[in-house]
Design goal:
about 160 residues
Length: about 160
């Protein structure tokens, strides 16, 4: 979108709007689920979920090119497209997991995951093509996967011995 519209600030604002709404929904679901399940079950689901995210992160995403974008302009187009594209993907599921682990309140998780997402997207919007020439995507995926593995193992290590 940034290369197509050449308006990076409008694209980033669209990402911020979409991510905030998406992550607010996801963190609310995570807190809701955590309050209705036994703590040991939540911890195992989270641990295995984070390890699963790590494995999933190692698999390259398929790039889907939008043949024809709506004529809504960069802000609305980015907000709608990014919101829909982020449904059911790693970032949304990780937000659910973080909220189940660290919420309530879901607003704190929403703020943290939204700021993290905005920071990574800002890098992509402003420096993506330059970074892509300097860093191989495989190393970026491996670093992200390693973080998910660490989160999963840290949760497992915190489980009670009889859990």
């Amino acid at each position: 979108m940034a290369s197509r519209y050449r308006r990076p600030w409008a694209v980033l604002l669209g990402i911020l709007i979409a991510t905030t709404v998406n992550h607010a929904l996801a963190s609310s679901v995570g807190v809701w689920a955590a309050t209705r399940m036994p703590a040991a079950v939540v911890q195992w689901v989270l641990a295995l979920g984070f390890i699963g995210f790590g494995v999933w992160t190692l698999v390259p995403d398929s790039s889907v090119e939008l043949a024809r974008l709506p004529a809504w302009g960069p802000l609305v187009t980015e907000a709608v497209v990014f919101f829909l594209a982020d449904l059911g993907v790693k970032t949304q599921l990780a937000t659910v997991a973080f909220a189940a682990r660290f919420g309530p309140p879901p607003a704190a998780v929403t703020a943290g995951t939204t700021l993290g997402m905005l920071a990574s997207d800002a890098l992509a919007v402003f420096a993506g093509s330059d970074l892509a020439t300097r860093l191989r995507m495989i190393w970026i995926r491996r670093a992200a996967a390693a973080l998910f593995f660490v989160f999963g193992l840290a949760i497992i290590l915190q489980l009670p011995a009889n859990g």
